[in-house]
Amino acid sequence: MGSRIRLRRTLLGMSQERLGTALGLTFQQVQKYERGANRVGASRLYDLARVLDVPIAFFFDGMPQDNAPQSDVPPGTAMTSFAESRESFGGVPIASQPEGTEDRFASNELALLSRRETIDLVRSYYRISDPAVRRRVLELVRSMAA
Hints:
Layout: H1 2-11, H2 16-23, H3 27-35, H4 42-52, H5 106-114, H6 116-127, H7 131-145
Helix pairs in contact: 1-3, 2-3
């Protein structure tokens, strides 16, 4: 979780001191969260998500499923979360990803996003003030990567 805090803070160009001030903490406390020396409680996680302008789920993206709590459900039994089962409450069902089609790069995603080159690219991209130009740059990069 600490690496995700650091990633988002860095992408925003925010210092540990500035993040600490926004949270009412010292930069040393922010360092401890980022290194994993301090546990991030629920209310602090909420504050971090608000200040860093991300959903709380952002901090859990890419986490291995091994950390999930064990249940009494037999292996191989499909489980749905509350959000996925909202169809029964009159909502629109969420399409689930077919088994075995997980993004094979998910484990490397955090490493890629943490690279200085990636951070510089994202910062430069968002400095382009004209949305139409940004969209064309994105199209150009996508066509080059194909």
